[in-house]
Amino acid sequence: MKSLMLLALPLLFVPSLQNAQSEKEFSIRPDLSKSENISKWDLDGTGVWSIGSGRLILSKAGIPAGPIRRPGALAILKMKPLRSVSIEADIRSTASPDVARRDLDFVVGYESAARFYYIHLSATSDDVHNGIFLVNNADRVRIDSGKGKPQLTDFSWHRVRVERDGRSGRIAVYLDGSRTPVLLATDTTIVYGRAGLGSFDDTGEFRNIFVKGYSR
């Protein structure tokens, strides 16, 4: 009897091993050379988006609306949901530096318009600016420490990389080649989701976008 039990033990781990092996490596570098490629993005919110000159352009700010408080303009890649994901891009705010709370956003774990994570890079750092937030069928909730420094204070291009591990829940944000995260959070509410870019209520441009990760 004991022998039978010992023989059966390895079988208990087969499903989890199969799940890990079934995940497929995924990567995409969106083509921003043709205006019609905007069709490869799901546009969430009221912002006006276009593609031109190698850039994804948010030319008119979205207006946050609806029953929950969340960004007003998002462009989500039409892609398979990913667990572990890295999204990086050059970003540039086109809002006036006089706008104290100008922002641009990265999105990971996007399941729906009411359930996703977003990284808010801003010229101001306070309770609702310049942080990592969870939208979970309710107003966005900050999930990082709230100690990030303002990152979006000029018209310059900045290289940003967001890394997320869907199993551990770790989300890390790197700016302009930094070796240590400028923002860091851990949350396991959402495991799989898509990636994208946007702004809460401002304008900006994105280029040299690259996404990689693991899909089901």
Question: What does this entry look like structurally?
Answer:
The chain is 7% helix and 46% strand. The longest helix is centred in the N-terminal third of the chain and has 9 residues, at 14-22. Strand 8 and strand 9 (131-136) form a beta hairpin. It has a single domain (28-215), classed as Exo-inulinase, domain 1 (Jelly Rolls, Sandwich), CATH 2.60.120.560. The chain has helices at residues 2-8, 14-22; strands at residues 24-28, 41-45, 48-52, 55-60, 73-77, 82-93, 103-112, 115-122, 131-136, 141-142, 158-164, 170-175, 183-186, 194-199, 204-215.
Task: Provide a brief overview of the structure.
This protein has 216 residues and is mainly beta. The protein is 7% helix and 46% strand.
Which helices and strands appear, and what pairs or packs with what?
Elements: H1 2-8, H2 14-22, E1 24-28, E2 41-45, E3 48-52, E4 55-60, E5 73-77, E6 82-93, E7 103-112, E8 115-122, E9 131-136, E10 141-142, E11 158-164, E12 170-175, E13 183-186, E14 194-199, E15 204-215
Antiparallel strand pairs: 1-15, 2-5, 3-4, 4-15, 5-14, 6-11, 6-15, 7-8, 7-14, 8-9, 9-10, 11-12, 12-13
Brief descriptors of the model:
15 strands; Jelly Rolls; 7-stranded antiparallel beta sheet; 216 residues; mainly beta; globular; single chain
Tell me the name of the CATH class: Mainly Beta
Q: Which structural class do the helices and strands define?
A: mainly beta
Helix fraction by DSSP (H/I, runs of at least 4): under 10%
Distance between the termini: 38 Å
Assembly context of the chains: single chain
What does the main sheet amount to? Answer: 8 strands, antiparallel
CATH topology: Jelly Rolls
User: By CATH's scheme, which homologous superfamily applies?
Assistant: Exo-inulinase, domain 1
Question: H/E element string?
Answer: HHEEEEEEEEEEEEEEE
Name the average pLDDT.
90
Beta fraction: over 45%
Number of strands: 15
